[in-house]
Amino acid sequence: SQEFPDPFAVDFPHVGYDLDGRRIYKPLRSRDELDLFLEKMENPEYWRTVQDRQTGADVRLSEEQLELVQRLQRGQFGDVNFDPYEPSVDFFSHEVRIHPVTNRPADKRSFIPSLVEKEKVSKLVHAIKMGWIQPRKPKENVPTFYDLWAQEDPNSILGRHKMHVPAPKIPLPGHEESYNPPPEFLLSPEEKLAWEQQDPSERRLGFIPQKFRSLRAVPAYSRFIHERFERCLDLYLCPRQRKMRVNVDPEDLIPKLPRPRDLQPFPTTQALVRISGNIHLELMEFWDFGKQGRGSDDGSVRLWEVSSGRCLRSLTLGAVVRSVAWNPNPSICLLAVALEEQVLLVNPGLGDRLLVAATDQLLDSWEAPEEERVQPVRWIPASPEERAKGIRLLVQHDKPVTQVTWHAKGDYWASVVRNPGGRQVLIHQSSRRWSQDPFRKSPGMIQCVQFHPLRPYFLVASQRSVRIYNLLRQELTKKLQSNCQWISSMAVHPGGDNVICGSYDSKLAWFDLDLSTRPYRLLRHHRRALRSVAFHRRYPLFASGSDDGTVIVCHGMVYSDLLQNPLLVPLKVLKGHAPALDLGVLDVAFHPHQPWLFSSGADGTVRLYT
Amino acid sequence: MGGLEKKKYERGAATNYITRNRARKKLQLSLPDFRRLCILKGIYPHEPKHKKKVNKGSTAPRTFYLLKDIKFLLHEPIVNKFREYKVFVRKLRKAYGKSEWGTVERLKDNKPTYKLDHIVKERYPTFIDALRDLDDALSMCFLFSTFPRTGKCHVQTIQLCRRLAVEFQNYVIASRSLRKVFLSIKGIYYQAEVLGQPITWITPYAFAHDHPTDVDYRVMATFTEFYTTLLGFVNFRLYQSLNLVYPPKIDSQAEDELKPAEGKEYAMDSESYLEKLSGLSASLARAVAPTHEDEVEMDEFPVEGETAELMDAKKKEQEALEKHKKLFEGLRFFLNREVPREPLAFVIRCFGGQVSWDKSLCIGATYEATDPSITHHIIDRPHLDKQVVGRYYLQPQWVFDSVNAKLCLPVADYFPGVLLPPHLSPFVTEKEGDYVPPEKLKLLALQRGENPDEESEEEEEEEEEEEEEGDNDKEEEEDESEKEEEMKLQKMEEQKTQSTQSNKVLPVKVTAGKVRVEDKQRLEQEQQSEEKRLAIMMMKKREKYLYKKIMFGKKRKIREANKLAEKRKAHDAALKEQKKKKKKARQA
Questions:
Q1: Pick from B129, B246, B571: which is nearest to A184 by CB?
Q2: CB pairs under 8 A between A and B
Q3: Is B135 helix (H, G, I), strand (E, B) or coil?
Q4: CB-based contact B110:A136 (threshold 8 Å)
Q5: Which of residues 211 through 250 in chain A touch B, CB cutoff 8 A?
Q6: Closest chain B CA to residue A577
Q7: Please, which pLDDT band fits residue B219 given cuts at 50, 70 and 90?
Q8: How far does B232 lie from chain A, in Å, by closest CA?
Q9: What pLDDT shows up at residue A518?
Q10: Rounded Cα distance, A476 and A474, in Å
């Protein structure tokens, strides 16, 4: 009969099929678990009852069958009569016989040398002959360590060793690395957080200091191998270089300058403040006798007496005053005022009456030439009302005038016109009412001009350089490179050999004309743009006013000895002006005789420092 | 005119340097071999002054070596050995592949080896040079000797490292040249002075290593290869200088003591020998019997003036050093089981003390815990049940602090269970203006011979406060100039505000004047500071930059010192508060 494999048989009602293909059914089993249990309990033969898988019937094992099962379980042979420990019988050798077991004759190859072996040996021999196979080297009996430096030969120190840069040693640990540091070396929680957020390369301390109560509690340092490895990398990968460490006392770096108190007199304290409302632009110019002229952009020019502090005259002009300039000639009382496109020559009528009359006479003595010359400006005599105010002449330009300046003799004066690319500088002669343009082509954007106080030179400051022209020979003598971005103002030393330039990039350049066309010194004293610079006429002083609201007074001693360079010493930082609208000090001027300094600022004050 | 056209990069700096890749090609070595060669020969890259010129106009980041260095490497016999080794590996692989075991055997017998003796001699032409460079070698050997004998690197290397480290330790003990010890959180720093050269090394705490994965052990192994050679030769020479036998032998007298009494063999003799040595408790055999009169007295030359003073100072220093060397002479220590044995035994023996430990802990214990002659018992647990009268029970920090202080510190602070005083670094020498922890000040006072303990505690506290106040005074002085400026600015501001006020309302008002008391000193100072400021204005740009940098560094230092002092003050105040509270609680 056909039989199912066991697992299939579980679910089917039949056990298999007979020869005719009919199903052989399992014997009917109506017993459930309870019945099984009961049988187990009640049937004393249950332990030796086995189910026959083929028929499904229960079979009770006989005594012999039980014996067999027990023997097999014990690992014994099933057959009771089988003896596994029978004595062995050595079949071939226990009895020596006269005849061999096999009678096969020996092979021929057992009598002749082996070819294969011969081949192998010859290969080895060849290899030994060729030196491919080395015989075993005898073990050298040399101690591994001996006195290597027994003979220290001074010749063995080569250039290499002198050039060798030994690796720097690892820095020694400080208190913070201790396992039990003083409490102040431990990081506070904020510091710890900051440490964790820092980039590992930026940390000043490579670890977080920790405190342990006893040595027993100290754990292994997890980055120990790392640190040694990094040291190894440093040793063979890092370029080495000898660096000269600057080991200077910072006090030695400070230049030894004469003490300011030895260089007195110079203005030190604020003596006077004049408040003039909300006037922004203020200009000052001194006349020889201690009178001061001042223009402002509310359209007036006021004249003050310094000694008394009184306002002597006030001229209302009705337009913004750009520049004022007193005639430097002591025998003439004349004031040039730049007013929009006009320049007014004003006789303020102050001082000696003779002087005033002489000035008027000088201006009026002009006679018109026979042939009219073409001039770049128009000279207009003042109308009676204007004359009553003191105005004597009007010089009409075609563009706004930014600066007027007198020649030292008091006859010539120059004006700067804001006219980029065109005619920018004009030189006028007031006695002959005659003007001319000195330049054939424009030398860039001109910031300011100055006449040389002694020699017939004319200084023109463009954006980045100062040109010095010889007016007699009509040629360019020098071009001073200022090293600044944008020159704002310029002043000439009364000795004539030195020029200072203030610039909007907060530098002050001191030129020594005998020395070089480059600045002798570039002073970066101010923090903001410089607006004006001034020399004192008698004392070795110069001052600079800047947008940061300070005026710095410096000692600028020029020696007559050509070999000695000028001595520049900053003397005093004068504070007082409050910056307004990003502007600070707008103009500075020295008193002609006294070591006094006037400064006007954007906060609408004029301050006198004495 | 005429002449040949000058080609770029054919003269000058460009010809003095060579890139790493080109150097490698010139030497015909693979990158790992090149690296090995550079490590062994101590060749390091150089940074050219004008990198672009050397790099032939390119700005790519490259490593440059000096051409001379590379030419020097060309003559190195080791380069050939590298090549031989490569061939050997190839042959071996082939033999393995063909299962020719005889060939494998033969090849292995003839494995090419190389020695680094000549390189050591070449790199360090004099012995002093070698000593100067010993720091890294020692640290590395001590680290490698703690590695497990599995994976990572050859067992022989580890064994060699251990042997050399123990030998060096024994030398330091024999010569008594240890000077400073420092327990840091990274490990233990030791500083010894050998032939006038300070040698510092660090050993890790005795724990299993957590081996990092991002470390190239081959590089470290190459370094160790060189360092072991160097250290071996240095050890030989050092032993010779003390007339000691090398390889070290334990004194026969000591050896008898060390013999296990029960006659039970502990291990093979050759193996246990290193362990006995590393016990550090026995003295070493000398080649020449020590003569006790070999302490040469310095000849005295008649000297005058300053040199005499110098000589006196030197003599005093010498005496202090001798005293320091005999710090623990006559003391008998016993180490409890939880105490790290090796560092403590090493340190104690270096200063002449006798030391022993539990027999089960390590070989080499000389006396038992019950020995009545023990003077100091080192223990690192909060309390001990059975205490023997007649000896101090101390925490291990006492030993290290005493060594650093160069005197036996008062023991009261170091009893078991007591909160230890901070452990300070002996490597820091405070300069003027640096922050000095108060413990250091106390220590300095102790060294000078004053005894701050006699004064009552309160007084001490007051003193501390005074000190701190003193510190503050200094700070104030430093700050004074700034304050002056501030004052001035304030005045100016006041003036300004006045003037602005006067803008609005004309101040036609007369107030009674006040007599101004002018502080002359203050005025003087003000004037001086202003003069200084003006002078600074006149500095040249470069000098000003330097000056500002230096001043910035100084200010930062002061700031940090102040911060530390403040922290300390806050901490002390908090402590005081706590004490008071406790007192009150006790009283209540």
A1: B571
A2: 263
A3: helix
A4: yes
A5: 212-216, 218-229, 231-233, 235-241, 246, 248, 250
A6: B496
A7: very high
A8: 6
A9: 87
A10: 7
Which residues, 6+ apart, have CB-to-CB distance to A28 below 8 Å?
none
Facing residues of B104 across strands? none
In the block, residue with structure tokens 């100067």: B132
Four-point Cα dihedral B21, B25, B30, B35, nearest 10: -50
Rounded Cα gap, residues A605 and A585, in angstroms: 10
pLDDT tens-place string over residues B509-548 = 667 777 777 678 888 888 888 888 888 888 888 888 888 9
Q: Would residue B267 be called left, alpha or beta, if left means φ above 0 and alpha means ψ between -120 and 50 degrees?
A: beta
pLDDT in the model for residue A278: 46
Q: Which of A236, A571, A573 sits opposite B39 (nearest CB)?
A: A236
A188 touching chain B per CB within 8 A: yes
Q: Which two tokens stand for residue B359?
A: 């027999």
Q: Which two tokens stand for residue A216?
A: 């027993």
Per-residue buried b or exposed e for B379-392, using 16+ beta carbons within 10 Å of the residue's own CB: bbeeeeeeeeeebb
In whole angstroms, how far apart are CA B418 and each of A398, B381, B453, B583? 97, 10, 17, 19
Which residues on B lie below 8 Å from A184 (Cβ)? 437, 564-565, 567-568, 571
B439 and B422 Cβ atoms separated by less than 8 Å: yes
Residue pair A571/A583 in contact (Cβ under 8 Å)? The answer is no
Chain A hits for B183, Cβ within 8 Å: 178-180, 215, 218
Instruction: Report CB contact under 8 Å: B45, A238.
Output: yes
Are B156 and B92 in contact by the 8 Å Cβ rule? The answer is no
Residues of chain B with C-beta less than 8 angstroms from the C-beta of A137:
109-110
Structure tokens at B139: 């640290």
pLDDT > 60? residue B137 = yes
Which of A250-259, A354-363, B416-425 tops mean pLDDT?
B416-425
pLDDT digits (tens, 9 = 90+) for A120-170: 999 999 988 998 887 777 777 777 888 888 887 777 777 788 888 889 999
What is the value of ipTM here, to two decimals?
0.83
Of the candidates A442, A472, A480, A435, which has an alpha carbon nearest to the alpha carbon of residue A455? A472
Is the pLDDT at A210 greater than 60? The verdict is: yes
> CA–CA separation, A417 vs A439, rounded Å?
13
Q: Measuring CA to CA, which residue among B418, B372, B374 is closest to residue B395? A: B418
- Across the beta sheet with B178-183, what order do the strands follow? B178-183, B188-194, B197-203
Return the closest-CA partner of residue B330 out of B351, B356, B359: B351
Closest CA to A253 of B381, B544, B37: B544
| 3-class DSSP assignment, residue A230 | helix
Interface contact A265, partner B, CB < 8 A: no
- Residue A167 and residue A240 in contact, taking contact as beta carbons nearer than 8 Å: yes
Report CB contact under 8 Å: B205, A157: no
Cα–Cα distance list, B308 to A395, B165, B302 (Å): 91, 42, 8
Nearest Cβ partner of A228 from B139, B496, B527?
B139
Please name the residues in contact with A453: beta carbons below 8 A apart, sequence gap of 6 or more: A408, A492, A494, A496
From the list A186, A586, A384, the residue with the least C-alpha distance to B571 is: A186
Kindly determine whether residue B186 and residue A570, on different chains, have CB atoms separated by under 8 Å. Answer: no
* Cα B216 → chain centroid: 24
Question: Are B343 and B188 spatial neighbours (Cβ–Cβ below 8 Å)?
Answer: yes
Biggest alpha carbon distance in chain A? 177
Closest CA to B109 of A133, A141, A137: A137
How far off is chain B from A135, nearest CA to CA, in Å? Answer: 8
What is residue B459's predicted lDDT score, i.e. its pLDDT? Answer: 42
Report helix, strand or coil for B326.
Answer: coil
